[in-house]
């Protein structure tokens, strides 16, 4: 039964359903009100008739008891002649007592023309000074016709005899009035219901015109052109707020579409340059050119293409479902220390200043954050790049500063967008793709942190990353965060503080991103520099020549 109204509304539509609902509500209200009106009017008219009968009875009793004619029968006739009309149903009965015994005789001494004197209107005989009211009874007129009346019987004494006054007021006027009212209600209520339904249907249609205008405008839009907006009605009601919300949503979709188109265009442009270089090199090699510079150029473009595709895949994964980094303990100071001796095409060497700070996150993604910031600083620095890792209360802070030209205030928010290069004259050959800082923003946000840029004390830009930090651990009790080994551990006697160290936190049930490593690592020599982990090489795959070396993996 609960599903039936929903099915009806689905078939009839909002206008028809609203009209039917309004008509049903009005019908129920009018029926209940009409029934109550008929009942109350009937009761009021009956009370009026009853009061009239009681007043007439009281008047006749006072006239009879006044003994104006000297005998009970004469007093009765005189009262009827004076106070009753021919159409009234009034009788006066006199009870005569016998002198010999206790027997008595009751005689109808007076009666109106309509009541007559042949038959008493009622056998009720109240005592002297008492009265009885019968609100609904049936009596016979003088001509034998029945009449539905309110009967009042009163006892009195006239000239020493017991007198009974009977007054009957017909209820036919009451029945006629209620019948007339019911007749008008039976015809008037359906008309009012129909008028209510039609009016509701009409005004519901007018109220839904803005909604139909919104639907028509949205239906006319295409995914290729989202510049149109739905009309906003002047009234600031629910429909007006709906139109404003629709326009805001369309604007967001338009912005997202523009970002997507720019992303595709920029990605295509970025991929075109290395692909063109690779194609040219392959063409030269096909013609017999064996210059070492060609192979070196192809290797460099391939590495650049690999980094670009890796960055695009990471950003695509962030757009699809958001980054879900692995949750493990990471020592940010160790991550930053790897930048101290990392080789780079730039001659600027990073100055690293750290203090022990541990966070929960994905080591590979956090290392990529630091590496992207350092690479960006090296590309713009004149002579200095400073990396600082410190603790600020419950927050881990990573600062990367350079002495370059800095970032203008109006561009400090836009610098984290994708494919953004503030220096339009800078060539792409310097290694920048415009995605490094966008990846920094995505990874930091996935780890619950923030990244911002301001002016550095050494004259250039300072990028500051803030991440939730783990509680500090005493230096003597510090153990390396899994899965890396410490660069150089200082043996210390175990203390009770070790028992309070937090174990690595891993969400086994959650779907996490695969373990990542910073892209763009150069080949590592046979004896790795101090502070860098030794590379491992893949074992040869089945079917591959045994002498073919595997690729270096970090």
Automatic annotation (TrEMBL):
It catalyses: ATP + protein L-histidine = ADP + protein N-phospho-L-histidine. Residues 329-349, 494-554 are annotated as: Disordered. Residues 266-471 form the Histidine kinase domain. SMART domains: HAMP, HATPase_c, HisKA. GO terms for molecular function: ATP binding. Its main location: membrane. The chain crosses the membrane at residues 20-41, 149-169, 181-204. InterPro entries: HAMP_dom, HATPase_C_sf, HATPase_dom, His_kinase_dom, HisK_dim/P_dom, HisK_dim/P_sf, Sig_transdc_His_kin-like_C, TCS_sensor_his_kinase. The keyword RNA-binding does not apply. Its EC number is 2.7.13.3. It is an enzyme of class 2 (transferase). Residues 544-554 have a biased composition (Gly residues). It is found in: Cell membrane. The keyword Endoplasmic reticulum does not apply. Residues 205-258 form the HAMP domain. This is histidine kinase. It comes from Pseudonocardia yunnanensis.
């Amino acid at each position: 039964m609960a599903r039936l109204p929903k099915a009806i509304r689905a078939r009839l539509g909002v206008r028809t359903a609203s009209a039917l609902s309004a008509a049903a509500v009005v019908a129920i209200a009018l029926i209940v009100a009409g029934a109550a009106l008929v009942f109350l009017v009937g009761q009021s008219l009956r009370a009026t008739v009853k009061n009239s009968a009681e007043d007439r009875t009281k008047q006749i009793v006072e006239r009879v008891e006044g003994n104006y004619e000297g005998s009970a029968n004469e007093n009765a006739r005189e009262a009827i002649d004076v106070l009753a009309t021919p159409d009234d149903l009034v009788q006066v009965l006199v009870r005569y007592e016998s002198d010999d015994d206790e027997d008595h005789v009751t005689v109808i001494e007076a009666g109106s023309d309509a009541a007559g004197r042949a038959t008493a209107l009622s056998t009720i005989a109240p005592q002297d000074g008492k009265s009885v009211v019968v609100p609904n009874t049936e009596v016979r007129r003088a001509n034998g016709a029945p009449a539905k009346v309110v009967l009042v019987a009163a006892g009195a004494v006239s000239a020493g005899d017991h007198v009974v006054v009977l007054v009957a007021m017909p209820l036919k006027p009451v029945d006629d009035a209620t019948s007339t009212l019911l007749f008008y209600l039976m015809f008037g209520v359906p008309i009012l219901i129909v008028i209510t339904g039609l009016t509701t249907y009409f005004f519901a249609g007018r109220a839904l015109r803005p909604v139909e205008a919104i639907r028509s405008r949205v239906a006319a839009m295409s995914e290729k052109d989202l510049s149109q907006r739905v009309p906003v009605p002047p009234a600031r009601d629910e429909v007006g707020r709906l139109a404003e919300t629709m326009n805001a949503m369309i604007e967001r979709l338009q912005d997202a579409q523009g970002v997507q188109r720019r992303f595709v265009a920029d990605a295509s442009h970025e991929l075109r340059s290395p692909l063109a270089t690779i194609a040219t090199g392959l063409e030269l090699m096909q013609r017999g050119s064996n210059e070492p510079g060609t192979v070196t150029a192809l290797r460099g473009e391939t590495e650049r293409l690999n980094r670009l595709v890796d960055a695009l895949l990471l950003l695509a994964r962030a757009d699809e479902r958001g980054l879900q980094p692995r949750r493990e303990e990471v020592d940010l100071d160790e991550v930053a220390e790897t930048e101290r001796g990392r080789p780079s095409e730039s001659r600027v060497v990073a100055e690293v200043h750290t203090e022990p700070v541990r966070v929960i996150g994905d080591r590979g993604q956090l290392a990529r954050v630091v590496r992207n910031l350092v690479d960006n600083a090296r590309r713009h620095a004149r002579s200095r790049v400073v990396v600082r890792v410190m603790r600020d209360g419950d927050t881990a802070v990573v600062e990367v500063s350079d002495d370059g030209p800095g970032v203008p205030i109006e561009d400090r928010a836009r610098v984290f967008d994708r494919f953004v290069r503030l220096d339009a004259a800078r060539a792409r050959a310097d290694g920048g793709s415009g995605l490094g800082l966008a990846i920094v923003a995505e990874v930091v946000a996935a780890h619950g942190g923030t990244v911002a840029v301001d002016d550095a004390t050494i004259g250039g830009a300072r990028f500051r990353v803030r991440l939730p930090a783990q509680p500090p651990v005493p230096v003597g009790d510090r153990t390396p965060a899994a899965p890396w080994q410490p660069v150089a551990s200082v043996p210390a006697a175990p203390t009770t503080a070790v028992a309070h160290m937090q174990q690595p936190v891993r969400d086994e049930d959650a779907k996490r991103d695969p373990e990542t490593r910073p892209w763009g690592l150069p080949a590592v020599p046979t004896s790795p520099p101090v502070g860098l982990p030794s590379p491992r090489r893949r074992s040869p795959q089945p079917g591959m020549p045994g002498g073919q070396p595997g690729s270096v993996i970090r």
